[in-house]
């Protein structure tokens, strides 16, 4: 029986994975600030160690527990950025290392049809095991490098969340009555408001980390601001020809 140690196991994502691995006949150990079992001992006696703590503390936790992990074990982080934690896992441990990003929240009912990105960084023994256990439960596995993952997340998360928050803040400045606006709405606007509401119902600390800790976001957000400025200038000048050109450039990339 594989022993899975979850550091940060009393948090929402930690509890999700506790239930998942118990369902799949693993022995699960939990360690957090609320448990008697400390993170170093949990990591030392586990075959697979999941680091499930906030992004800003992940590297520090890895530095603390990494040296005590058995060489035959697997160390995995579960954050939404990958280069920094993967580099920390490689530096502070001798075991096998996989960066993992479960691209869903702890409220998911299961991993079925959910995307999980894996970034193998050292060793091959455990990669097959972790792919099999997730695919057996219906997850969609994407193998990537940490660098490629962070580049994609700068678009999927960094750019998307930035623009969504900016829309919400502009509506606040304009004094928009959200409930009243929905009485005039098209389906597209309603979908956008659902997305805005979904983000704003979650932890601001999580979104701050997503925006601030992925170094790839800097380039992406600069491009967004440049594109916004260009569009504003086109509209200010009432230049229909340039607007059509801008619109078609957008349409081309979306096929």
CA-atom Rg in angstroms: 21 Å
Overall mean confidence score, pLDDT: 96
Helical residue percent? 40-55%
Instruction: Indicate the structural class.
Output: alpha/beta
| Number of helices in the DSSP assignment | 11
Given as residue ranges, the uncertain stretches (5+ residues, pLDDT < 50) are: none
Shape descriptor reads: elongated
> Major sheet: order of its strands?
2-1-3-4-5-6-7
3D structure, described in words:
The protein has 255 residues and is an alpha/beta fold. Helices cover 55% and strands 15% of the residues. The chain has eleven helices and seven strands. The protein has a seven-stranded mixed β-sheet, with helices on both faces. The radius of gyration is 21 Å and the shape is elongated. The N and C termini lie far apart (49 Å).
Task: Quickly list its features.
255 residues, alpha/beta, seven-stranded mixed sheet, elongated
What would you say about this model in short?
With 255 residues, the protein is α/β, with parallel strands linked by helices. 55% of the residues lie in helices and 15% in strands.
